[in-house]
């Protein structure tokens, strides 16, 4: 009995409407001292309020389980993307109710205002949709769903607590991966900024003989098939398959820098996942190597159906380290693991020319055996500072330093190019598109 009474008081909340009515009653009592003609009106108003409160309690508590609510969430969340979740709620009261819902989302989001309001008719059910954007990989713990119900009187609220604690893992951006996957399957990558590269010559992979359409190279006309069919027929070629594509991800402190909530490491991981998926769809073999002060994960290149899940599980666990990249260990691993000429995409970041100079001897050695593509990031904050007009001496100093760092980045691109090393110098938000662009360009020009 004591437990029931305790739960009654614990889940009972007085609304602002009740406080407003009681304030009005107090005002009437005060006015009664100055205007005797008010008589018993203040007491009458007070007792009417009390009766309405009792009636409101009866309406809310006579139904044991007046509402039902549950969270509808995916099995896992996608890092850096807007993930859709929902709260399903059903009304079992025989009258209209006003509902307020609190979903106890994980502490990583640092949100305390996840409050949804709605009204419901008798026996009605609704689904309330909302979006969450995680910025870190790992496990996210959701808590209770709290539902506050008000009757048409609206004087008090009854709280319902639905225990639905669950832990959802946040994986690298698989939503972005699926978007590019659908584009690649339907050959619509140009719709989202992926450039169509003019093919130089032909690959050695013959695909089919097809009808000539405007724009086809007349040098590919198959005259024997044309004579048989009576229509112009051309030979169709496809990109060479089973080429090895390795994503090498630098996990050192240089990749800890944040940008729009995500670290550079997370941008590199998301781009690597998408690139691996596109490579597998193009029937190439995708592999992965992670490195910091020592070698992390190594996933040999393969084209099996399970390869993408293997890469995804490895990337889910990767974290930034706080030491310099061990380039000697990376070179040794590349020579030991990668047995044939491959495309090696090295995701890293350089903020100064000396940082590049320390790694350059090992990059040159790797480039002797493989097609090396170094991906590093444009510092958008420095770019913004360099473009702002200077109004005082301090502003001139800041602008000059920002322009110097921006100029150093351009010098790094030229320095790598002089040694035959290809580069992608990209802002974090355009990294995925630029990386796939370059991969498709390399495929089209048969550089591997």
Automatic annotation (TrEMBL):
Q: Provide the DUF58 domain boundaries.
A: 208-350
What Pfam family is a match, any one? Answer: DUF58
TM ranges are 12-38, 44-61
Q: Which UniProt keywords apply?
A: Membrane, Transmembrane, Transmembrane helix
Origin superkingdom: Bacteria
Does the keyword Membrane belong to this entry?
A: yes
Q: Which PROSITE patterns match?
A: PROKAR_LIPOPROTEIN
| InterPro entries associated with the record | DUF58 (IPR002881)
PANTHER family assigned to the protein according to its UniProt record, in alphabetical order: BLL2464 PROTEIN, SLR2013 PROTEIN
Record protein name field: Uncharacterized protein (DUF58 family)
């Amino acid at each position: 009995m004591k437990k029931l009474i305790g739960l009654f008081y614990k889940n009972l909340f007085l609304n602002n409407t009740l406080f407003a009515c009681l304030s009005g009653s107090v005002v009437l009592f005060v006015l009664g001292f100055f205007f005797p003609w008010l008589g018993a009106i203040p007491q009458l108003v007070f007792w009417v309020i009390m009766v309405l409160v009792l009636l409101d309690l009866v309406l809310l508590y006579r139904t044991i389980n007046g509402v039902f609510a549950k969270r509808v969430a995916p099995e896992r969340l996608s890092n850096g993307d807007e993930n859709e979740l929902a709260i399903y709620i059903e009304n079992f009261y025989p009258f209209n109710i006003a509902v307020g819902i609190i979903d106890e989302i994980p502490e990583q989001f640092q949100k305390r205002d996840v409050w949804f309001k709605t009204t419901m008719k008798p026996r009605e059910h609704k689904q309330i949709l909302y979006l969450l954007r995680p910025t870190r990989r790992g496990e996210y713990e959701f808590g209770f769903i709290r539902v506050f119900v008000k009757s048409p009187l609206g004087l008090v609220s009854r709280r319902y607590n639905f225990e639905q604690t669950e832990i959802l893992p946040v994986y690298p951006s698989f939503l972005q991966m699926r978007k590019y996957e659908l584009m690649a399957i339907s050959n619509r990558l140009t719709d989202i900024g992926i450039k169509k590269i003019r093919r130089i010559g032909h690959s050695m992979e013959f695909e089919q003989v097809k009808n000539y359409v405007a724009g086809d190279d007349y040098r590919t006309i198959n005259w024997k098939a044309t004579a048989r069919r009576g229509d112009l027929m051309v030979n169709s070629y496809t990109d060479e398959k089973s080429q090895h594509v390795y994503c090498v991800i630098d996990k050192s402190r240089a990749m800890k820098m944040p940008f729009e909530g995500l670290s550079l490491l997370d941008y590199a991981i998301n781009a690597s996942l998408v690139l691996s998926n596109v490579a597998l769809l193009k029937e190439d073999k995708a592999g992965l190597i992670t490195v910091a002060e020592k070698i992390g994960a190594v996933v040999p290149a393969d084209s099996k159906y399970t390869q993408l899940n293997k890469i995804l599980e490895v990337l889910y666990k990767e974290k930034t380290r706080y030491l310099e990249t061990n380039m000697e260990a990376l070179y040794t691993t590349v020579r030991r693991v990668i047995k044939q000429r491959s495309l090696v995409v090295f995701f890293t970041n350089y903020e100064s020319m000396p940082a590049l100079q320390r790694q350059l001897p090992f990059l040159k050695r790797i480039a002797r055996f493989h097609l090396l593509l170094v991906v590093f990031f444009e510092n958008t904050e420095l770019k913004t500072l360099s473009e702002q007009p200077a109004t005082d001496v301090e502003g001139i100093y800041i602008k000059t330093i920002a322009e110097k760092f921006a100029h150093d980045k351009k010098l790094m691109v030229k320095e790598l190019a002089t040694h035959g090393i290809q580069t992608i110098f990209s802002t974090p938000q355009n990294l995925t598109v630029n990386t796939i662009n370059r991969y498709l360009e390399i495929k089209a020009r048969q550089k591997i």
